[in-house]
């Protein structure tokens, strides 16, 4: 019987390869950071998106889509998670809550494989020092949600996603039926609307879009905007179809002096300049005016830019456009963070600022000059009630009623009082990506004395 040798050949050491990074993990981490920037640090989503990141364009787009959809459908997401968490979540674990929210969003609303949503969520929980003990819970809750997805989807009610303060106010202002229609529209990502300098029909064909009744080019929101034909040449700019209407209500302004108050980022400024006006664009934020200036350079529009408080501007001008600071509740579809950042107190505070801007009109306008006041808000205090109060206290201004036939496609938006009021639920379409527009209020005034 042979003896085992004292020295034997060593077996080669097995080196286990490091596990490959989860391909979608960085984008999902970024989505968590974006949601927490809004919900925990009270920062606007657009501001959070401006923070530098090493992600490539595809991952940046995925992170933004996950974050925006999570904020848009947060009421539904939280309800469905609560149904699966009998004891709720432990206090002091914000990342665990955020991870569950964005994973639930992917399972319910995005075209993402379940395993990718669940696996990335578990990894993020495991990597959180405080939350790693709940990785099993996260796995069980999310797998259960994926298993019950069809049942969960059958229970969806877009009204659940409206912040309670908005649901209450909109029901009071516009009625239960209109509020339900608005909620249904804003549950989906909005289309991409463009204002073109000329040949809107041609650009719609070239870009594979459609024309709205008011002449905007409407595309499905896909891909990077700067990569689209015509962007680098300044042939068009991104502007919601509703936002494109107020500047046109000033009529023929070729050769006239026009003050554009609170002008940045400059969509309406470009419209005024393209119509031949001598435009003075005013905004108190130098950073926002830098963006406006960049936009005007791309669009080859010449405007005078002034970094100052609009309340300090001196006239007179032939016309004035006041795109007033507002709660922006009419833009919730594209900016779902608004629901979570604004409150009734903001409505009241901004209404006071709007009144101060309106009170400057007799000083800013030449006799006979006209002005358009607009807000992207659905709150009557920032629209109808604001103008009623102005006309009651200021005899030098009068309403110049908007006519249903003065611009193509605006008849459904013109009220009996001669105001323009769009609701997000206007322009319904079987394809949500082609439906709706921002909620806007606009009114035209004239200086009579």
């Amino acid at each position: 019987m042979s003896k085992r040798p004292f020295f034997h050949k060593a077996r080669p050491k097995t080196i286990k390869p490091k596990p490959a990074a989860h391909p979608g993990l960085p984008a999902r981490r970024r989505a968590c950071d974006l949601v927490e920037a809004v919900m925990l640090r009270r920062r606007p989503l657009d501001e959070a998106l401006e923070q530098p990141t090493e992600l490539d364009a595809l991952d940046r787009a995925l992170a933004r889509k996950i974050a925006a959809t999570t904020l848009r459908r947060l009421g539904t997401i939280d309800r469905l998670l609560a149904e699966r968490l009998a004891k709720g979540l432990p206090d002091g674990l914000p990342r665990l809550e955020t991870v569950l929210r964005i994973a639930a969003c992917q399972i319910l609303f995005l075209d993402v494989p379940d395993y990718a949503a669940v696996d990335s969520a578990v990894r993020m929980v495991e990597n959180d020092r405080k939350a790693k003990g709940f990785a099993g819970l996260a796995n069980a809750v999310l797998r259960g949600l994926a298993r019950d997805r069809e049942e969960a989807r059958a229970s969806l009610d877009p009204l659940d996603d409206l912040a309670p303060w908005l649901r209450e106010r909109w029901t009071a202002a516009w009625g239960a039926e209109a509020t339900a229609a608005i909620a249904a529209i804003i549950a989906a990502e909005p289309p991409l609307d463009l204002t073109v300098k000329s040949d809107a029909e041609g650009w719609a064909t070239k870009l594979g879009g459609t024309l709205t009744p008011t002449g905007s080019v409407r595309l499905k929101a896909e891909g990077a905007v700067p990569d689209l034909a015509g962007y680098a040449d300044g042939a068009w700019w991104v502007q919601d179809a509703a936002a494109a209407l107020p500047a046109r209500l000033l009529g023929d302004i070729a050769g006239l002096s026009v003050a554009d108050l609170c002008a940045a980022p400059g969509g309406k400024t470009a419209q005024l300049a393209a119509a031949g006006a001598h435009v003075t664009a005013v905004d108190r934020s130098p950073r926002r005016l830098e963006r406006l200036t960049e936009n005007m350079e791309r669009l080859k529009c010449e405007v005078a830019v002034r970094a100052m408080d609009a309340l300090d501007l001196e006239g007179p001008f032939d016309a004035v456009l006041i795109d007033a600071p507002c709660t922006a509740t009419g833009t919730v579809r594209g900016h779902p963070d608004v629901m979570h950042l604004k409150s009734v107190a903001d409505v009241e505070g901004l209404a006071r600022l709007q009144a101060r801007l309106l009170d400057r009109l007799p000083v800013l306008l030449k006799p006979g000059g006209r002005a358009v006041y607009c807000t992207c808000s659905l709150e009557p205090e920032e629209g109808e009630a604001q103008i009623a109060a102005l006309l009651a206290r200021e005899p030098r201004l009068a309403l110049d009623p908007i006519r249903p036939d003065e611009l193509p496609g605006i008849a459904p938006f013109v009220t009996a009082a001669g105001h323009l009021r769009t609701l997000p639920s206007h322009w319904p379409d079987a394809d949500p990506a082609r439906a709706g527009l921002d909620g806007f209020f606009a009114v035209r005034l004239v200086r009579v004395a």
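The chain is about 40% helix and 15% strand. The longest strand covers residues 365-375.
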